[in-house]
Amino acid sequence: MNKVARFKEALKQEEVDAIIISKPTNRRYLSGFTGSSGVLLLSKSRDYLITDFRYKEQGRKQAKGFEVIQYEESLVKSLQEIIQKLSLKRVGVEKDTVTLDTYQEYVENIKEADFIPVRDYCSGLRQIKTREEIVLLKKAISLADAAFLHIREFVRVGQTEKEVAAELEYYMRKLGAEKNAFDTIAASGVRSSLPHGLASNKVIKKGDFVTLDFGAVYEGYHSDMTRTLIMGQPDAKQSKIYNTVLTAQTEAERKIKPGMTGKEADSIAREIIEEAGYGEYFGHSLGHAVGLDIHEKPFLSPRDDSVLKAGVVVSVEPGIYLPDWGGVRIEDLVLITPQGCEVLTKSPKNINEMIIDK
């Protein structure tokens, strides 16, 4: 059963005649279309990609099995014509994606049908990655791994965080990345206590932690990794905190397996950090799934009781963040397998390999 057929099967419980897909990553997943404008209309009998002149030719090449419609007057007008032609009475819309303004535009201009908000079934299907998706994810991960090995040789005391981030991003693009997976985090010294400390003009100094969180996009699929460098020999406190985070991270990777809930996975790392006396300084979730979006379900979180399944790719990223002192985060992507999990990120992470003493 292909992706569209699986999606339609899952959608049956909503009792709709068709659904409009407007979330870009869902649109790409179901059709293969990578353009930035357009919607899918999936019905029981026919499937459409409705887009503008810029993407008509591209759509015909990419969206196999879809009838490509170029709208002239407006997208809503073309939707109305198809809905009328197929006699559709109940049309679903993605309630997590469609804005109130767009929903009202549908309701006010397409009187032939009722528009029914439905949950994001496609994101549920996207949790389990196909073999082809795993290949693309591994490629995106390899680009980030290579960039980290490069930046470990590049970084020096006296550079700014922005210089380091720019070199990381340039190197990933040079290797073939489409773009960054997200805004690169490069936080040094006391700023490394900021879990999402975007690169600033701060100068990197001797003795600083330098936390780098970054990723590459390859054919739409995202990677995500974090390493924390140490500019010089670590002191006792730095060593303790770094190794506590590393122990929590590697233990989670050793124990995560299918059938476990996101909450149970999170607790593996969290308990180790709490026992070390730093529980209050680990305030975010252990991880999240990754794919066409950088943050996907399920989450490895104290609030996520969803069951982990083989085929899901998730981040494992514990951290400790001490205000006005600094912080450490270490992150890999792992593939959950029937036996446990496979660590996909290959970059080194032992403390001795993070020391930049030059």
Q: What order do the helices and strands come in, and which of them pair?
A:
Layout: H1 3-11, E1 18-21, H2 24-31, E2 39-43, E3 47-51, H3 56-62, E4 67-70, H4 75-85, E5 90-94, H5 100-109, E6 114-118, H6 121-125, H7 131-154, H8 161-175, E7 179-180, E8 185-188, E9 209-214, E10 216-218, E11 221-222, E12 225-230, H9 236-255, H10 262-275, E13 287-289, E14 296-300, E15 313-316, E16 319-322, E17 326-329, E18 332-336, E19 341-343
Parallel strand pairs: 1-5, 3-4, 5-6
Antiparallel strand pairs: 1-2, 2-3, 7-10, 8-9, 9-12, 10-11, 13-14, 15-18, 16-17, 18-19
Helix pairs in contact: 7-8, 9-10
Describe the structure using short key phrases:
358 residues, Creatine Amidinohydrolase, Chain A, domain 1, Creatine Amidinohydrolase, 2 domains, 3-stranded antiparallel beta sheet, 22% strand
